[in-house]
Amino acid sequence: MPDETRHSPRPLDGIRVLDFTHVLAGPFCTRVLGDLGADIVKVATNSRPATGGGPESPYYTMWNRNKRLLQLNLARPEAQQIARDLAAKADIIIDNFSVGVLDRWGLDWHSVAQTNPGVISIAMSGMGSSGPWASYVTFAPTIHALAGLTYLTGVPGRNDIGVGFSYNDHMAGLHAATALLAALEARRATGRGQRIDMSQFEVGVGFSGPALLDWFANGVAAEPIANDPPWRIAAPHNTYPCAGEDRWIAIAVETDQQWQSLRALLGDPAWARNAEFDSADGRWQRRAELDAQLTSWTARQDPYDLMQRCQQAGVPAGVVQTGEDLTQRDPQLQHTNFFFEHDDPHPTFGPINGDRLPLRFSKTDAAQYRRPQIFGESNTTILSDWLSMSAEQVQSAAAEGIVE
Amino acid sequence: MLGSTGSLAGVRVLDLTDDRAIYAGKLLGDLGASVLRLEPPEGDPLRRRGPTHNGESLWHAFFASSRSHARPESDIEAILALASSADILIDCGRLRSAQISPGDLLDANPALVVVDVSSFGPDGPWADYQAPALVAEALGGVAATSGDSDTPPLKLFGDQYAFIAGVYAAIAALAALRHARETGAGQIVSLAVHEALASVLEHVLMWAWFDDQLPFGAGSAGAFLPRQGSLHWSRAYQVMQANGGAIMITPTPDFQAQLAWLVEEDAHDDLLDPKYAEPENIVLLIERSMDALRRWTATKDVEPFFHEAQRRHHPYGWVMPIPEVAANPQLEARDWWTDYPLGEQTVKGPGPPYRMADTPAQIGGDPSRPEPASAEQILNEIGWAD
Fold first, then answer.
1. Shortest CB distance from A359 goes to which of B125, B168, B353?
2. Other C-beta atoms within 10 Å of A308: how many?
3. Is residue A351 assigned to a domain?
4. CB 3.0 to 4.6 Å from B317: which of A118, A142, A336, B296, for a disulfide?
């Protein structure tokens, strides 16, 4: 967003984004674009419920930094006209509504492009704009189920575990950002914007790519395999309990050399000298026995200390870190200053934290963060910057209930 | 010819990645960039990764699609020559192994974008740690929140860490490319897989920072939510068992419409009790609703139940194994599947993750095993010599 306190250039300086997204997938896309320097104007409306929580909810606060917030009563024709005027100034329009919602407000690509031919729009609907399921409604757990991710992430014999967080929402947002950046490059050559139809379902199905090729080529249907590596043999390769309450470590032995190193760490016990364990195939055949032996070894040990000793010996190992570990213990994330506190306290929550965009640009520093806005903080500056409306005009629109 | 059509037509990408960022080259190639995967002189170990078909790697066919492949006689000579003609170079440590400084590459080609992907970043206490998928997902916070209370923490199926790091690498490349187009200045962008994973955990960081603000926050349990199978952190989404299969059920976003459906089928238990309308009973309402839904779901046949829910705009999700995903009528109707080159044949697989109206993404490429070649031969073959 425009900010006179910022001095270093950013990759998307000068790009204006009109943001009609809600919940996570769309807001995560525009969070990334905002981190990269785009001017994000997020339009909120009272004419539909704030799914995922409004601007004073923790969930909203997580995904809406580096954006300005404009509250329009889009049930009013005058507010719809303001939205169309904003669209005429936008480089990018983004929504994750169900199919057709923006069309009703005259904000579809074809309508906007009549006066703004360079505009790029992306519709991040659940199923895409066509097909027999186009009207189906989805959240990330819906997509995980339909795309095979729920079925496959689990232990043998279970079909009810799946991914423990809204993975596909983040990934749909990141893929949308990729498509938009590509469309900006295409516009540079042609001068024309275009419409992008994104199906969050199609994004999610792609994550089973090799399994789907295996099905189509070989007729082999992948099944849940817990922590075994798919399509190759490696053992021991699992998460193992450590000292403490629900503490675990992941150990991933993928080569014979790593096994020999782990054996030395174990103290070269008699059971580990079995020649069958010297080969990957032998360890794979007896991986249940290996898991049991390792469990008895790891269960008495501190996970961080054990990880360090494994890694120093050349054995890939990592603590199963919780959110508390990531934010309070992880020395690598502390070293890279991955977490930060916003300079400006949030009006509702006071001091709030954030996680940096995990990209470090050597010349266009993206690590510039403005806290999420609440209603009423940015209406005037947005309408002034984009539409040259005076403060009096904005106040008048607010008095009439057009701007909220 | 690769790189002649699509949004990124004319953009040249030198792909030096391993599995951590190989997906970036696919995304850029799908979008029309001319992507050259420069295999190590000894050959690409990812060509051996399963699953396979007739001895060819399907893993490689998928992740290394939409690009050309070359195998240099001399790694250093080829990298230096190709980087001088490229717009983007994506690396996972190969430059360091070849003792090539990214800064030297930018001196020779000032508009070059170098994306440097590593497990933990260029320095720090864990910079030299090894982190294959299981370890990366454990340290990155993925495993702690996946799995159930009676299972170990689980990594996600497949190589999801490669998808996460890969898409971030593509964003890094394209964002820096835009800056280079505007100013003529290339740059180096560093990406740590560890940070990438920690950035896509949905509720996990929120739980650590806002636990006292959530109606069912961690409170005395500590600032993290233990793994709990498919039960969402909000407790309002869960996979339940129906006749013929499992289905993800949620009463959100319209509790009233869900309640009306339960009432219609006399499956609402005591949910009409006015106490559930009190804000302080929101957690109780969710729990009782999920109990009622679980019992009701057990009486349903999964396929018609799923479609009826969606007809009523409830975001239920039928838990589909791979064969049913492959037969999905929505994907068929949108003509989404595409053919991946594999040796002398093709195999069906996922299409691009977006549809660009004017510059459509397209999957293709030539996956054949390259013979060792000189830098000059590679440059001429790929058409980057000019």
1. B168
2. 16
3. no
4. A142
